[in-house]
Protein backbone atom coordinates (compact mmCIF):
# COMPACT_ATOMS: atom_id res chain seq x y z
CA UNK A 1 0.00 0.00 0.00
CA UNK A 2 1.26 3.47 -0.91
CA UNK A 3 0.23 6.20 1.48
CA UNK A 4 -1.33 9.34 0.03
CA UNK A 5 -1.31 12.69 1.79
CA UNK A 6 -3.38 15.53 0.35
CA UNK A 7 -2.91 18.84 2.16
CA UNK A 8 -4.90 21.94 1.27
CA UNK A 9 -4.70 25.29 3.06
CA UNK A 10 -6.54 28.54 2.44
CA UNK A 11 -4.33 31.49 3.30
CA UNK A 12 -6.50 34.32 4.60
CA UNK A 13 -3.65 36.86 4.34
CA UNK A 14 -2.89 36.22 0.67
CA UNK A 15 -6.42 35.02 -0.17
CA UNK A 16 -5.27 31.98 -2.11
CA UNK A 17 -5.25 28.19 -1.83
CA UNK A 18 -2.15 26.02 -1.49
CA UNK A 19 -2.35 22.34 -2.47
CA UNK A 20 0.19 19.63 -1.71
CA UNK A 21 -0.26 16.10 -3.06
CA UNK A 22 2.18 13.42 -1.90
CA UNK A 23 2.30 9.85 -3.17
CA UNK A 24 -0.67 10.11 -5.52
CA UNK A 25 -1.32 8.09 -8.69
CA UNK A 26 -4.55 9.82 -9.69
CA UNK A 27 -5.26 10.59 -13.31
CA UNK A 28 -6.94 13.97 -13.87
CA UNK A 29 -9.27 14.09 -16.90
CA UNK A 30 -9.55 17.05 -19.26
CA UNK A 31 -10.95 20.03 -17.35
CA UNK A 32 -10.30 23.70 -16.64
CA UNK A 33 -10.37 26.09 -13.69
CA UNK A 34 -11.72 29.61 -13.37
CA UNK A 35 -8.55 30.66 -11.52
CA UNK A 36 -4.78 30.64 -12.07
CA UNK A 37 -2.77 27.59 -10.99
CA UNK A 38 0.99 27.90 -10.45
CA UNK A 39 2.65 24.68 -9.36
CA UNK A 40 5.72 22.47 -9.56
CA UNK A 41 6.63 18.79 -9.60
CA UNK A 42 8.54 17.74 -6.49
CA UNK A 43 8.88 14.10 -7.46
CA UNK A 44 7.52 11.99 -10.29
CA UNK A 45 6.94 12.05 -14.02
CA UNK A 46 3.69 12.96 -15.77
CA UNK A 47 2.28 13.46 -19.23
CA UNK A 48 0.40 16.74 -19.42
CA UNK A 49 -1.91 17.85 -22.22
CA UNK A 50 -2.84 21.54 -22.12
CA UNK A 51 -4.60 23.40 -24.93
CA UNK A 52 -3.96 20.35 -27.15
CA UNK A 53 -0.18 20.54 -26.58
CA UNK A 54 1.68 17.63 -24.93
CA UNK A 55 4.34 18.12 -22.24
CA UNK A 56 6.49 15.58 -20.39
CA UNK A 57 6.85 16.72 -16.78
CA UNK A 58 9.68 15.83 -14.39
CA UNK A 59 10.86 16.89 -10.94
CA UNK A 60 11.71 20.58 -10.86
CA UNK A 61 9.33 21.60 -13.66
CA UNK A 62 6.96 24.51 -13.02
CA UNK A 63 3.44 24.48 -14.48
CA UNK A 64 1.17 27.47 -15.08
CA UNK A 65 -2.50 27.27 -16.05
CA UNK A 66 -4.53 30.34 -16.92
CA UNK A 67 -8.27 30.44 -16.22
CA UNK A 68 -10.16 28.38 -18.82
CA UNK A 69 -7.04 26.49 -20.02
CA UNK A 70 -8.22 22.89 -20.64
CA UNK A 71 -5.70 20.38 -19.30
CA UNK A 72 -5.33 16.72 -18.33
CA UNK A 73 -2.47 14.70 -16.85
CA UNK A 74 -1.51 11.18 -15.82
CA UNK A 75 1.44 9.12 -14.57
CA UNK A 76 3.57 7.49 -17.24
CA UNK A 77 6.16 5.54 -15.23
CA UNK A 78 4.02 3.71 -12.66
CA UNK A 79 5.46 5.76 -9.82
CA UNK A 80 3.73 8.21 -7.52
CA UNK A 81 3.59 11.99 -7.82
CA UNK A 82 4.52 14.70 -5.32
CA UNK A 83 3.14 18.06 -6.44
CA UNK A 84 2.51 21.51 -4.96
CA UNK A 85 0.58 24.47 -6.32
CA UNK A 86 -1.07 27.74 -5.42
CA UNK A 87 -4.46 28.76 -6.83
CA UNK A 88 -5.12 32.46 -7.40
CA UNK A 89 -8.57 33.80 -8.21
CA UNK A 90 -8.69 36.34 -11.09
CA UNK A 91 -9.78 39.21 -8.84
CA UNK A 92 -6.81 38.55 -6.52
CA UNK A 93 -4.45 38.25 -9.48
CA UNK A 94 -5.74 41.58 -10.77
CA UNK A 95 -4.94 43.26 -7.45
CA UNK A 96 -1.46 41.73 -7.42
CA UNK A 97 -0.77 42.79 -11.02
CA UNK A 98 -1.91 46.33 -10.23
CA UNK A 99 0.43 46.36 -7.22
CA UNK A 100 3.38 45.23 -9.38
CA UNK A 101 2.77 47.01 -12.70
CA UNK A 102 0.26 49.75 -11.94
CA UNK A 103 -2.02 48.23 -14.58
CA UNK A 104 -5.25 46.33 -13.98
CA UNK A 105 -4.89 43.89 -16.89
CA UNK A 106 -5.23 40.17 -16.24
CA UNK A 107 -2.14 38.36 -17.52
CA UNK A 108 -2.03 35.34 -19.78
CA UNK A 109 1.00 33.21 -19.05
CA UNK A 110 2.89 31.24 -21.69
CA UNK A 111 4.34 28.67 -21.95
CA UNK A 112 2.44 26.32 -19.66
CA UNK A 113 5.57 24.44 -18.56
CA UNK A 114 8.87 25.96 -17.41
CA UNK A 115 11.33 23.08 -17.53
CA UNK A 116 13.77 22.78 -14.60
CA UNK A 117 12.92 26.34 -13.61
CA UNK A 118 14.76 28.32 -10.95
CA UNK A 119 11.30 29.55 -9.88
CA UNK A 120 10.58 26.17 -8.28
CA UNK A 121 12.74 27.19 -5.28
CA UNK A 122 10.94 30.44 -4.31
CA UNK A 123 7.61 28.78 -5.10
CA UNK A 124 8.49 25.95 -2.71
CA UNK A 125 9.51 28.42 -0.01
CA UNK A 126 6.30 30.41 -0.41
CA UNK A 127 4.19 27.25 -0.41
CA UNK A 128 5.86 25.95 2.76
CA UNK A 129 5.27 29.24 4.56
CA UNK A 130 1.57 29.02 3.67
CA UNK A 131 1.32 25.43 4.91
CA UNK A 132 3.00 26.35 8.18
CA UNK A 133 0.69 29.33 8.72
CA UNK A 134 3.43 31.98 8.67
CA UNK A 135 2.00 35.47 9.05
CA UNK A 136 4.90 37.89 8.60
CA UNK A 137 5.29 39.98 5.47
CA UNK A 138 8.08 37.81 4.03
CA UNK A 139 5.34 35.56 2.66
CA UNK A 140 3.72 38.40 0.72
CA UNK A 141 7.14 39.59 -0.42
CA UNK A 142 7.90 36.17 -1.89
CA UNK A 143 4.58 36.11 -3.73
CA UNK A 144 5.09 39.58 -5.23
CA UNK A 145 8.67 38.83 -6.34
CA UNK A 146 7.58 35.51 -7.85
CA UNK A 147 4.73 37.08 -9.79
CA UNK A 148 6.92 40.00 -10.88
CA UNK A 149 9.32 37.58 -12.57
CA UNK A 150 6.50 35.56 -14.13
CA UNK A 151 4.87 38.73 -15.46
CA UNK A 152 8.13 40.06 -16.83
CA UNK A 153 9.34 36.88 -18.50
CA UNK A 154 6.32 34.71 -19.25
CA UNK A 155 3.23 36.84 -19.76
CA UNK A 156 1.56 39.38 -21.93
CA UNK A 157 -0.60 41.55 -19.72
CA UNK A 158 -2.39 42.88 -22.79
CA UNK A 159 -5.39 40.69 -23.71
CA UNK A 160 -4.10 38.44 -26.53
CA UNK A 161 -5.84 38.26 -29.86
CA UNK A 162 -7.79 34.99 -29.94
CA UNK A 163 -6.27 32.26 -32.07
CA UNK A 164 -9.73 31.45 -33.35
CA UNK A 165 -12.90 33.41 -32.71
CA UNK A 166 -15.66 31.22 -31.33
CA UNK A 167 -18.44 30.65 -33.81
CA UNK A 168 -21.92 31.97 -33.07
CA UNK A 169 -23.19 28.42 -32.52
CA UNK A 170 -20.50 27.55 -29.99
CA UNK A 171 -21.05 30.82 -28.11
CA UNK A 172 -24.74 29.98 -27.99
CA UNK A 173 -24.00 26.53 -26.55
CA UNK A 174 -21.66 27.99 -23.91
CA UNK A 175 -24.25 30.59 -22.88
CA UNK A 176 -26.94 27.93 -22.67
CA UNK A 177 -24.83 25.57 -20.55
CA UNK A 178 -23.78 28.40 -18.23
CA UNK A 179 -27.43 29.40 -17.72
CA UNK A 180 -28.82 25.85 -17.33
CA UNK A 181 -25.99 23.87 -15.68
CA UNK A 182 -28.25 22.95 -12.72
CA UNK A 183 -30.65 21.20 -15.09
CA UNK A 184 -30.45 17.98 -17.06
CA UNK A 185 -29.02 18.96 -20.46
CA UNK A 186 -29.06 16.61 -23.44
CA UNK A 187 -27.07 16.57 -26.64
CA UNK A 188 -30.38 16.66 -28.52
CA UNK A 189 -31.19 19.99 -26.86
CA UNK A 190 -27.86 21.50 -27.88
CA UNK A 191 -28.26 20.17 -31.41
CA UNK A 192 -31.76 21.63 -31.75
CA UNK A 193 -30.58 24.92 -30.24
CA UNK A 194 -27.93 25.41 -32.92
CA UNK A 195 -29.26 23.41 -35.85
CA UNK A 196 -25.99 21.44 -35.93
CA UNK A 197 -25.91 17.63 -35.99
CA UNK A 198 -24.81 16.04 -32.73
CA UNK A 199 -21.60 14.58 -34.12
CA UNK A 200 -20.60 17.81 -35.87
CA UNK A 201 -21.47 19.78 -32.73
CA UNK A 202 -19.16 17.61 -30.60
CA UNK A 203 -16.26 17.95 -33.04
CA UNK A 204 -16.60 21.72 -33.54
CA UNK A 205 -17.12 22.49 -29.84
CA UNK A 206 -14.15 20.38 -28.77
CA UNK A 207 -11.92 21.90 -31.46
CA UNK A 208 -12.84 25.49 -30.58
CA UNK A 209 -12.98 25.19 -26.78
CA UNK A 210 -10.37 22.46 -26.25
CA UNK A 211 -12.82 20.47 -24.14
CA UNK A 212 -15.97 18.48 -24.89
CA UNK A 213 -19.44 19.93 -24.14
CA UNK A 214 -20.03 17.40 -21.35
CA UNK A 215 -16.67 18.15 -19.68
CA UNK A 216 -17.45 21.86 -20.03
CA UNK A 217 -20.77 21.33 -18.23
CA UNK A 218 -19.26 19.22 -15.44
CA UNK A 219 -16.39 21.67 -14.91
CA UNK A 220 -18.84 24.56 -14.52
CA UNK A 221 -20.80 22.50 -12.01
CA UNK A 222 -17.66 21.76 -10.00
CA UNK A 223 -16.63 25.44 -10.00
CA UNK A 224 -19.99 26.42 -8.53
CA UNK A 225 -19.88 23.50 -6.11
CA UNK A 226 -16.56 24.75 -4.73
CA UNK A 227 -18.08 28.16 -4.04
CA UNK A 228 -21.02 26.62 -2.17
CA UNK A 229 -18.77 24.32 -0.14
CA UNK A 230 -16.58 27.30 0.78
CA UNK A 231 -19.73 28.96 2.16
CA UNK A 232 -20.31 25.95 4.41
CA UNK A 233 -23.12 24.15 2.60
CA UNK A 234 -23.23 20.38 3.02
CA UNK A 235 -22.12 18.14 0.12
CA UNK A 236 -25.55 16.54 -0.18
CA UNK A 237 -27.10 20.01 -0.59
CA UNK A 238 -24.44 21.12 -3.04
CA UNK A 239 -24.94 18.05 -5.23
CA UNK A 240 -28.61 18.94 -5.64
CA UNK A 241 -27.92 22.63 -6.24
CA UNK A 242 -25.35 22.04 -8.98
CA UNK A 243 -27.20 19.56 -11.17
CA UNK A 244 -25.55 16.26 -10.26
CA UNK A 245 -27.79 13.21 -10.44
CA UNK A 246 -26.84 12.05 -6.94
CA UNK A 247 -24.24 12.62 -4.23
CA UNK A 248 -22.14 9.63 -5.33
CA UNK A 249 -21.79 11.02 -8.86
CA UNK A 250 -20.94 14.43 -7.42
CA UNK A 251 -18.32 13.04 -5.02
CA UNK A 252 -16.64 10.89 -7.65
CA UNK A 253 -16.41 13.67 -10.22
CA UNK A 254 -15.34 16.29 -7.68
CA UNK A 255 -12.41 14.11 -6.58
CA UNK A 256 -11.45 13.41 -10.20
CA UNK A 257 -11.04 17.12 -10.93
CA UNK A 258 -10.03 18.61 -7.57
CA UNK A 259 -8.18 15.68 -5.97
CA UNK A 260 -10.30 15.84 -2.80
CA UNK A 261 -13.79 14.74 -1.84
CA UNK A 262 -16.37 17.53 -1.34
CA UNK A 263 -16.31 16.84 2.42
CA UNK A 264 -12.53 17.21 2.52
CA UNK A 265 -12.66 20.42 0.48
CA UNK A 266 -15.39 21.91 2.72
CA UNK A 267 -13.24 21.15 5.77
CA UNK A 268 -10.59 23.63 4.53
CA UNK A 269 -12.97 26.52 5.22
CA UNK A 270 -14.28 25.15 8.52
CA UNK A 271 -12.22 26.97 11.16
CA UNK A 272 -13.17 24.44 13.82
CA UNK A 273 -11.61 21.62 11.78
CA UNK A 274 -8.54 23.66 10.86
CA UNK A 275 -6.24 23.31 7.89
CA UNK A 276 -4.81 19.85 8.36
CA UNK A 277 -3.35 17.25 6.02
CA UNK A 278 -5.94 14.91 4.55
CA UNK A 279 -4.44 11.39 4.60
CA UNK A 280 -5.52 8.50 2.45
CA UNK A 281 -4.14 5.35 0.90
CA UNK A 282 -4.08 3.77 -2.50
CA UNK A 283 -2.96 0.36 -3.61
From TrEMBL:
Signal peptide region? none
Q: Would the keyword Thylakoid be found if you checked this record's keyword annotation?
A: no
The alphabetical list of record keywords is: DNA-binding, Transcription, Transcription regulation
Q: List each copy of the HTH araC/xylS-type domain by range.
A: 171-268
- Tagged with keyword Ribonucleoprotein: no
Record GO terms (molecular function): DNA-binding transcription factor activity; sequence-specific DNA binding
Stated name of the protein: AraC family transcriptional regulator
Superkingdom of this protein's organism: Bacteria
The cross-references to InterPro entries, in alphabetical order and at most eight, read: AraC-bd, AraC_XylS_family_regulators, Homeodomain-like_sf, HTH-like, HTH_AraC, RmlC-like_jellyroll, Tscrpt_reg_AraC-type_HTH
Amino acid sequence: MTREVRTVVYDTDLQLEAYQFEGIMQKFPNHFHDYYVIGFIEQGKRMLVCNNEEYLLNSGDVTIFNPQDPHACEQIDGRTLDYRCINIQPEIMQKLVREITGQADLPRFTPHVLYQSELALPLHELHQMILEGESDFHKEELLLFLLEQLLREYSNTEPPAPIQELSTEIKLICDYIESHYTESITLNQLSELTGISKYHLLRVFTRQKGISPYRYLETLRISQAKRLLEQGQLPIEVAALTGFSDQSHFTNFFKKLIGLTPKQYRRIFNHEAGNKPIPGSVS
